[in-house]
Specification:
This protein is an alpha/beta fold. The protein is built from 12 helices and 8 strands. The protein has a single domain, classed as Aldolase class I (TIM Barrel, Alpha-Beta Barrel). The longest helix is centred in the C-terminal third of the chain and has 23 residues. It is globular, with a radius of gyration of 18 Å. The structure holds glyceraldehyde-3-phosphate, 1,3-dihydroxyacetonephosphate (13P) and zinc ion. 1,3-dihydroxyacetonephosphate (13P) binds next to strand 3 and strand 8.
Length: about 280
């Protein structure tokens, strides 16, 4: 029986042990169950995260309630995190609903305004023991079709990342170092030097957004250099839905959703376990 824990607690331990904790997006009960069962079976700390879209789909209190029940049933520490929160009211509603961590993504604003808005969130969240992830620079989607020199221009300058981290006091830092959300057309090229520079100079716990499809060696190297949280969504969606499709094709007359969603949950659980082993969090709880 474990209460939800703040993200900071998980990432402090990850820094000590030089590994990363997986932050897995959830949208429904089966996904939450797969995340926590995989973590429990591998003795891994874990982060359940919900985007604003997930909250809109499932309802804030369902998301918070599901995660709390899952954590209660788990014997490993679990954090519940808001992914890419873009407005103050959503962040506050999540804190009130029991989230133990929030991302405030102020990347749509110029740096000074992003810093000011993020500081305000940090002040409120820390007052009630909730952790905060901030974002400096823009982590794009792979649909943003851009040339290599343009891509480099979109990477977060090290000086900006350090300035943002020191000015805001966030617990975890998302910056643009070459990953993107969604499917990669070509394998991403990570600016590992930027990860290393920011982590070495500040001790910041860096977050890898767009973790789906990043080659395993790059993930391992990033973790060696200071990545402490890896976000995965696209690969989970694919593994869950490809099994749903396979089950529907194999059992066209099936009318019991449990016979379709149950096997999909099992397949997803194995995918999650692979990620926990890759991130080095397995066996750390
Ligand atoms: O970074 C975005 C996550 O993959 C969540 O996506 O907004 O469609 O839930 P979503
Ligand atoms: P992917 O969907 O590319 O795995 O990215 C997930 C993410 O960064 C959520 O914030
Ligand atoms: Zn993201």
């Amino acid at each position: 029986m474990m209460p939800l824990v703040p993200l900071r607690t998980l990432l402090d331990a990850a820094e000590q042990g030089n590994y990363a904790v997986g932050a897995f997006n959830c949208n429904n009960m089966e996904i939450v169950q797969a995340i926590v069962e995989a973590a429990d079976e591998l003795r891994s700390p874990v982060i359940i995260q919900a985007s604003q879209g997930a909250i809109k789909y499932a309802g804030l209190h369902y998301v918070a309630g599901l995660a709390r029940l899952a954590a209660d049933a788990a014997t490993v520490p679990v954090a519940l995190h808001l992914d890419h929160g873009t407005d103050y009211n959503t962040v506050i509603a999540c804190i009130r609903a029991g989230f133990t961590s929030v991302m405030f993504d102020g990347s749509q604003w110029p740096k000074a305004e992003n810093i000011a808005r993020t500081k305000e969130i940090v002040k409120v969240a820390h007052a009630v023991g909730v952790s905060v992830e901030g974002e400096i620079g823009k982590i794009g989607g792979v649909e943003d079709d851009i040339a290599v020199d343009e891509r480099d221009a979109m990477l977060t300058p090290v000086a900006d990342a350090i300035e943002f981290y020191e000015a805001t006091g966030v617990d975890a830092l998302a910056m643009s170092f070459g990953t993107a959300h969604g499917h990669y057309k070509l394998p991403p090229k990570l600016a590992l030097d930027r990860i290393e520079a920011v982590h070495q100079r500040t001790g910041a716990y860096l977050v890898m957004h767009g973790g789906s499809g990043v080659p395993q060696d790059d993930v391992r190297q990033g973790i060696q250099l200071g990545i402490r949280k890896v976000n995965i969504d696209t690969e989970l969606r694919e593994s869950f839905l490809s099994e749903v499709r396979a089950q529907l094709a194999a059992k066209p007359k099936e009318i019991d959703p449990r016979k379709i969603l149950g096997p999909a949950r099992d397949v997803l659980k194995e995918k999650l376990k692979d990620k926990m082993k890759l991130f080095g969090s397995a066996g750390k709880a």
